[in-house]
Each structure stands twice: as structure tokens, then as C-alpha cells.
Amino acid sequence: MALGFLLYLAPIRRGAALAIWTAAVLLAAALLFATYFFHPTLFRRAAPRFLLGATWRAFTVPGVYRQVGLQILRACPALALLLPVSIATYILWPRTRYFGTPLRFVTLLFIGLAWPTLTLPEQDTSSPPSPSS
Asked: From residue 42, how far is each of 25, 30, 107, 117, 124 by CA, in Å?
């Protein structure tokens, strides 16, 4: 979606837009790999879970919306105040609808609602840890 938006905004400089998008994707992949401490085995085992781990059922449970709202309120009361204000501004002022503002709302909502259903990589519990000396 981001590539399509870049190509739409810069139709004359498609090569530059593709280079920018490629750099952004590579940087994002490196940051994601860094969250697994650059450990390829952990990353490979977790990849199917973080790519396909969310279940759509989370979007139908009202308790999830309530929990996300409480977490936002506890983590940052200013965000709890400014989020409804920004949504109202988006609805009432058409000029704010340009440059991906809806995408930000949808992304934050998706992450917040899907977070409780994401799973962590399973740890190998077949052998007990050996005592270290």
C-alpha cells in the first residue's frame, strides 16, 4: 500500500520512489530482526507466528476494545484525550484526510486489537536446564 501511495505522489520519479520504499522495507526488516537479538533460529521459528499469528476473532470481542482503551488510558492519559479529538477532527475537517491519516488510525487500531491474540515463540521444554558452574 505504501509503495502504491509513493508511486501516486511521485509519478515522474518512480525510480526514486522505489528506492525509498526498498530502503524503508529493508530498515524495517532489520529492526524486526534486531528485536530477536539477531538470532536467526528464533527469528525463523517466530516468523510464522508474527506474520499469521493474529486471529480475526479478537475484533468481535467487546472486551478487547475495553481493554485497549484502559491500556491507552493508563499508559498515556494525553493520548486518551487526543485520540478522540483527532478522530473528531478527521471526521469534521475534510482536509485532514490526505496523506495517510486514515491508515494511521487503522494501523493503531489493528495493532491494539490484535495484540492480545499474538503468540510468542514456544520454548523448548523437553530437557531441563543444566546447572551452570
From this structure: 20, 14, 26, 19, 11
Contact (CB, 8 A) for 3 and 18: yes
The residue count of the chain comes to 133
Do residues 41 and 34 make contact, with C-beta atoms less than 8 angstroms apart? no
**Residue 31 φ/ψ, nearest 5 degrees:** -65, -40
- C-alpha cell at position 122: 514456544
Amino acid at 1: M
Convert the pLDDT of each residue in 56-97 to its tens digit.
676 788 887 888 888 878 887 887 787 788 778 878 887 776
Tens of pLDDT, residues 12-49: 999 999 999 999 999 999 998 998 889 999 888 888 77
**Number of other residues whose CB lies within 10 A of the CB of residue 129:** 6
pTM score of the predicted model:
0.45
How many helices (H) does the chain have, and how many strands (E)?
6, 0
